[in-house]
Amino acid sequence: MKRITSAGVVLAAVLLLGSCGGNSTLDDTEAARLFGGADDQLQGDMGLDALAFANVITQVGNYAEIYERNLGPDTPFDLPRGLNELWTQGGLLYPPPAR
Asked: CB under 8 Å to 15, separation ≥6 — which residues?
């Protein structure tokens, strides 16, 4: 379950979905399928509620939001993302395929 959730928050960061909505919306095909409950079979196969991923993102945010809140510049740690960035931004984070 931890791996599924970790992959979900990273994928939400790629899709620009966050706790405040981000730049993407659940109308986007992939975002709606994975986070909006449009693909009940995917979450059901994992033993999850249809809106499980949407609930996690709404409550704690995507990977970038979690990192910034706990380790980012506004915390005592003040750690730069570095290799914890998405692969599209020079880091190592890449969400696994959902299927």
From this structure: 22, 24, 28, 30, 31, 35
